[in-house]
Amino acid sequence: MSVEVSIPADLWEGDSDAVITTWFVNDGTSVKAKQLLVEVMTEKIQHEIHSPGNGKITILKQVDEVVGKGDCIARVS
Amino acid sequence: MAIKERKLTIARAMAEATAQEMRNDETVFVMGEDVGPLGGVFGNTRGLVDEFGPDRVRDTPISETAFMGAAVGAASDGMRPIVELMFVDFFGVCFDAIYNNMAKNAYFSGGNVKVPVVLMTSTGGGYSDGGQHSQCVYGTFAHLPGMKVVVPSNAYDAKGMMIAAIRDDNPVIFMYHKALQGMGWLGTEPGATVHVPEEEYVVEFGKAKTVREGSDVTIVSLGVGVHHSLKAAKQLEEKGISAEVVDLRTLVPLDRDHIFESVKKTGRLVVVDEDYQSFGVTGEIITSVVERDVSILKAPPKRIAYPDIPIPFSPVMEQWALPNPTKIVEACLKFNI
Prior knowledge:
Chain A is mainly β and about 80 residues long.
């Protein structure tokens, strides 16, 4: 079973795009629920995204890639 | 099996170290411009005011003269202040408190007054912020006796050196490079964001680290220069040259033995530094080898430092002046190894 890591719709106001600035884990490592996974930045403000569950992470969007609300950026399985 | 790991940016590593020491010791407090709710312009006090409150994480007015003096006074009276000089370039307005009081009071008092200040400050350019927001001035602080000077190149060292700095009874200048900090708007060198243990640990001052082994040439650097050097070493490997890279980690104390032993092995030395060239870090590193035994060198040492000019605002001109991997590779190729 796998859970998607996606950008929450309420992470920032408005519909501007964001860019991934830091992954705090490497692809393929094991992560715990609520662990800090990634930071995304929009308009110079960084926002944190935490793990939705326990398991092995597969990173789908890399640092410097542009992402929008609702985009799936990783999977935890 | 999946490996468990937890990477941190240098900014987060500094904040975590500070929080852990604030829990251990109630005399530790933080002071500076925008260190409170904003969490520091460069992110290194993020979350602290939420846990420790505004008495221990104090936003100051924009007066370095006042709050640097306050830090020296508080430290002399038994507190352990961590004070932030947002850009090192602004040391000019508060340097009397730093180099005449903070650095010297322990000596003037015959050791009776300790001044355990941690002065954390951002260094470096590369993002077109002009000549008064982009300097490193490592050599300026390292030149004046009485202060320890540390320059981390990665988050692991940053946490261990921050804890060591807070526990140290002497003033420590903690110089973090903006390009390593993990602030998205500045761009970040990915090699600085590494695995960091959750528990407390200390990285001892005065211990340089060989971050890449090699046999033909030693490249000595610090901070962001370590990452330039590692990239250069990779390119040199493709050309058949084996480069060793040494990360100084601290300028005061300086691990001269480590530098000497590495150059003794390779016979060649290149020093990479983003501070100004003349009267600075590069000259001191070279001297620490040649004044001990010049016969270990197979060729004259080389240095890649900032030219002796104020840092240009123009992106083209600034990038021309900065050290980079290409300049390091070219310098090493001139050895004709």
